[in-house]
Amino acid sequence: MAMEAPQLAILAGLLLLTILFGVTRFARLRFPLSGHLPYLWTFFLAFGVAEFLSFAAAVWILALLCFLALKEYFTLVDIRWQDRWAILGAYAAIPFMTYYIQIEWYGMFIVSIPVYAFLVIPFLVALGGREAKGSVLSIGIIDFGLFLFVYCVGHLAYLALYGTWKALVVILGVTLSDLVATLVRPGGQPGLARTGLRCLVSIPLSAGLFWGLSAWTGIPATHSLLLGALTPVLASVGRYTIAYIEADLGIDRESAVPGKGRVVDTLRSFLYVSPVAFHYIRYFVG
Question: What whole-number distance in Å separates Cα of residue 230 and Cα of residue 210?
Fold first, then answer.
């Protein structure tokens, strides 16, 4: 059976990312977003698996990415040894949420982390029991990481259920916004103004991308333009917010490596986009 154009494009994208990843590793080259390639490849791999093989297998690939992000986050925060049961509970929340995505149970997916996991984590912190002082901080640290790096990323996995290209165009829109943020370096501007300028450059490019792919995504042209304009705004908010948090965690973007800030830094642009894009598409497009 001949492949359709979207399938060929996904396959070509996977092949291109694989080649770029291999070349940069072998030749030790650096170019804009080179550090993002392994994680972009993970997204493309997951959506390629969803398109060609199995949606169920794809969501577990993204669950592994959530695990790596959460694990890295826990190595960077100041967490007490007595909270180990709560940390294990946070890891257990990943398959708990992923299973509901796999069986397409939206109602349980949407409350799996912000209701059930958030109720269990304080109990597990209390179960550690040795020292009450600092427990509120521990609960906040664990719940915050669980929400950002598991729940928000999980929305991308569920979005693939509504169509591989719907999820793929969101990834491409965020990647385009990241590329603009890397290349556009307005000197002499404070952080927020610099973020705003980069966002303004990204909006027409992203809107054009979404509109151009609307025939493949199945998102109507008007909604494609609106979602395309919204994506770089949310990606910029995510970059600005997480950069502030990274400063507190001691992450140096220039020297970040996997396990020491690279995964957190790479995913920061997706954290605001993923849930908003998911709910926008679910409500307006379905």
Answer: 11
Q: Please name the residue ranges forming H helices in the chain.
A: 5-27, 37-52, 55-76, 84-102, 106-111, 118-128, 135-146, 153-159, 164-183, 191-212, 214-217, 221-249, 262-267, 270-284
Q: Are the C-beta atoms of residues 67 and 59 closer than 8 Å to each other? A: no
Inform me whether the pLDDT recorded for 1 exceeds 50: no
Range of the domain at 158: 5-284
- Per DSSP, the three-state class of 112 is helix
Are the CB atoms for 197 and 184 separated by under 8 Å? yes
- The count of structural domains within the chain is 1
What one-character DSSP code corresponds to residue 163? Answer: -
Q: Which residues contact 8 (CB under 8 A, 6 or more apart)?
A: none
Q: Which residue has the tokens 């990481």?
A: 145
The 10s digit of each residue's pLDDT in 205-220 is: 888 889 988 888 888 9
Distance CA 115, CA 133 (A): 24
pTM of the model: 0.81
Name which of 250, 22, 278 is nearest 152 in CA terms: 278
